[in-house]
Amino acid sequence: MTLKTFTVFIILGTCAIGIVAIPSKVKDDVQHTLTCGGEMRPPRDDFLQDVLSFGLHTKTGDTGITATCMSKYAANRVYNTTHHEINGTGIATLNSNCNVLVLTYFTGENIENSQGFSMVYTSISGSNELISGTSKHYVVNSAEGDLRHPLSVKEQYSNLELSTFVFAPVENAYSPNTKTVIRYVLDDLEHWCSDFLDVLKFHPATTWTLSHRACNETIYERFESDDMIMVVFISDASVTGHGFHLIHSHEPKSLSDCSYK
């Protein structure tokens, strides 16, 4: 018997070939290895995954792997998110246009008979000029902190960004008495909601689902979830600003909290 856990990998088209591995022994800590081979390249259009199971037993809504593709189609903020369940071995072909790939591995309370997996991914096809090479990608599982984008108050974010910020439970382990809390604080974004943040929440039964959208019209907002939160920042092709803060913490649940938010 073990605690429910979450592990997230963000894979960019800048990595031509890579390997993701979860330990083949249950007694090992849930860690991950991500290696990248080949030359650095611009963001690409597609990923091909080859999954080798060491005895991974998936169960809908409990234990599994979700591949989330984020695709940008136009400079005027148009992007799309699709999800694919990986529940077997062999080649898993994702969208024909997959600029950022987010792999979410989640386990239930009992994985005694599950022995992990190895996944080789290959980025194929061409480049995407609609995504800035200065886009940032974070996975955070610390107890608390203040993540500012961009990092310096003197800097401005870039045009054509598709940046991701994933906030997981402390050490990736689910706690039934704790919730993940994100406080969004505006510094400066382009007017008319031309640049914006989408807030997605994760739950094993529903994968990543859109919860909120924030932009220059929102000075402050609080988001919370039992499991994980991912913030996706999108900017268009004109006008930049000084960005925003994402103040993250893990707080005790109150009696008024629902079992899932």
**Average pLDDT level:** 78
Number of helices: 0
Described by strand count, sense and barrel closure, the largest sheet is: 5 strands, antiparallel
Stretches where pLDDT falls below 50 for ≥5 residues?
23-44
Helix and strand content put the structural class at: mainly beta
**% residues in beta strands:** over 45%
Overall shape: it is: globular
Tally of domains: 2
Number of strands: 18
Give the ordered list of helices and strands.
Answer: EEEEEEEEEEEEEEEEEE
Spatial strand order of the main sheet: 3-2-9-4-7
Over the alpha carbons, how many angstroms does the gyration radius reach?
A: 18 Å
The first-to-last residue Cα distance is 25 Å
Helicity, in percent?
Answer: under 10%
Oligomer: single chain
From the coordinates shown, what is the CATH architecture of the largest domain? Sandwich
Features of the shown structure:
261 residues, Sperma_CUB_dom_sf, 0% helix, 5-stranded mixed beta sheet, 18 strands, 5-stranded antiparallel beta sheet, Jelly Rolls, globular, signal, 2 domains, 51% strand, mainly beta
